[in-house]
Amino acid sequence: MSEAGGDLRRKLRTAFVQAAAISIAAVLGVVGASAVLKHVLIQRALQQEAAHYWQRLDADPHAPVPDTYNMTGYLLPPQNTAGLPPALRPLGVGYHALSKAQGGSLVLVEERHGMRLFLLFKQEQVDSLAFWFGVVPLVLVLGAVYLTAWATYRSSRRAVSPVIWLARQVEEWDPQRPDASALEPHRLPGDVEGEALTLANSLHGFASRIGRFVEREHNFTRDASHELRTPLAVIRVAGDMMQEDESLSPSARRSLGRIQAAGCDMETLIEAFLILAREGDTGLPDEDFDAMEVLHDEIEKARPLLQGKPVLLELRELAPLRLRAPERVFSVLVGNLLRNACNYTEAGSITVTVAGDSVAIADTGVGMSTEELTRAFDPFFRGGDQRREGQGIGLSIVRRLSERYGWPVKLESKAGVGTTATISFPSVIPA
Hints:
Structural class: alpha+beta
Shape: elongated
CATH superfamily of the domain at 285-424: Histidine kinase-like ATPase, C-terminal domain
Mean pLDDT: 79
Strand content: 15-25%
Strand order of the largest sheet: 6-8-9-11-10
Number of helices: 9
Distance between the termini: 44 Å
Low-confidence stretches: none
Largest sheet: 5 strands, mixed
CATH class of the domain at 285-424: Alpha Beta
CATH topology of the domain at 285-424: Heat Shock Protein 90
């Protein structure tokens, strides 16, 4: 958000610089245009004055040459230049602009009836008038525009400064524990007023509500982590004790197996939900672990799901795989994929293959069509036989965990053939 404030300031500064550049360009353009225009107008005036004088001379051979405040005339034979100023003597017929060293005048030379007419226009007078009545007013107007733009820039900057300050305060907030104390009314800077004050009060109230919400979420996560695991542990222990009772009927044992499998699923789901509930912090430390050890445990947990099915569940290691991450996250991720494979495989095999940078879980289950494969990670979507057990959220949990930890998951499936899920690990611990 502070970058946005910096962008706003840069835009205001850029607009001010552009206005100044346009003003300067306008002044230079007007000065250049006036210089060209003066030459054109003066040349036209000299030509008209020369034409008028030749008419007068035809009517009166003794008509005097023009001699005014701004214009001086000379009428001499072409061979007699002694009466001319030295700067005019080398000039031929035509229009000439003398340099400043020669006087800076504009000269028109015409020749008729064996006589040569020199009309000399004193450009200094025109330059002075053009400067005082043209350039100076323009500069004053543009200066006023420039000062107005500067004042507008300053006032705009003062107006947006409180907003930029607010943006920086919000940017520094910790999403887990937003500290809105800097936005308390008695701690606000003096220039935070009007709409900015309303915005500051709104942000303060919003951050306070977010803080209370985050605190409630942390409390729930802490309490749920303890309260939900305790009864599940009791159920699992009781189930293990009942499993050792040889007097149970086959029907009771099947029911007990379903209870144990459901308890295992519930424990894994609770663990996954608790991890995902902590958006920025899982609360679990990173640790070095061997993927094979975790996979052995998850496979043993998944075996009850295959009870009574002619399915071979095996683990292969093509290369060692060691990771540095929360071990529980890895176990939840692969556990969901394993249970998904067990639920949708009635016969054949489920093979877990460990490579140097990946884990692949391949089954010979019902598989998925191309359309089902595109929706496999959608929450509550269940492909294949809809009557199978499951909530349809296992793959959704897998996707969210893989995105958080940067472990891409790729699904390959074909209806009636099976499915292969591959987890890639960009960062591994060298063997």
